[in-house]
Design goal:
Two copies of one chain form a homodimer. Chain A is α+β, with helices and mostly antiparallel strands. Helices cover 70% and strands 13% of the residues of chain A. Chain A is globular. The relative contact order of chain A is 0.15. The C terminus of chain A is likely disordered. Chain A binds a DNA duplex through helix 3 and helix 4. Chains A, B: Keywords: DNA-binding, Transcription, Transcription regulation.
DNA sequence: TCGATCATTCTAGTCTGATCGAATTATCAA
DNA sequence: TTGATAATTCGATCAGACTAGAATGATCGA
């Protein structure tokens, strides 16, 4: 994952409202959550919610699947894993080593 | 870590320039990197760099230690670890399970 | 087709963030 | 103290983000 892509995803997660949406979707697991239910639970104006969902979809963090009249939203776990990998591999190789050294000392 | 704090940290990492700064600091390890060296390596205007560093410090992602005339910048590895923990514990418990189930199937 | 529900898009207002040049503060060497 | 270097703060501009009400599009039951 390129660093600009990572930044885009972090930016998407950097808004409190969007982070709550994302967390709700991740917790929902494979079943996902319809837009309407998110709206009820998080008490967000529909237009605002839709705006944030679009941002999350564009960032690749979630996807939406139409099921009859409702739109079901799912977290993209692979992308989340990619972010974690970036934090660990691209960033934290030295960090972990340093930390271990420190802890051991 | 509260969800708003997490959002603040993600937001800080959500700017490409800041993410590059942060990555450079994480890679620098315990030794850290002076502001001036960051400025040389990343080719950012001093005032812009200072602005972003302030944001990272405020978010708690890095800290600065004065050493004579230079300011040495360090990544806060504990905070990074806290972010990872949030992703895993607050978010991904179901995700990992679902993934394993899927992979096994 | 009509009506109802679900969700998005449009439009607009407000606000915050990114950037950089210029001026300022801080530290040290001589 | 003076001069030099390091870094921040100030001031201004510009672009983009957040929010939400109103209007529109999509889907299905009757």
């Amino acid at each position: 994952m390129k660093i600009d892509d990572v930044a885009t995803k972090f930016e998407a997660l950097g808004n409190p409202t969007r982070l709550k949406i994302y967390r709700a979707l991740v917790r929902a697991g494979e079943a996902g959550t319809p837009v309407g239910r998110l709206q009820e639970r998080l008490k967000i104006a529909p237009s605002t919610l839709s705006h944030h969902l679009k941002t999350l979809v564009t960032a690749g963090l979630i996807r939406q699947v139409r099921e009859a009249t409702t739109l079901n939203c799912h977290a993209n776990y692979d992308v989340m894993r990619g972010l974690m990998d970036f934090m660990v591999a691209e960033c934290c190789a030295d960090a972990v080593e340093s930390k271990d050294t420190k802890s051991a000392a």
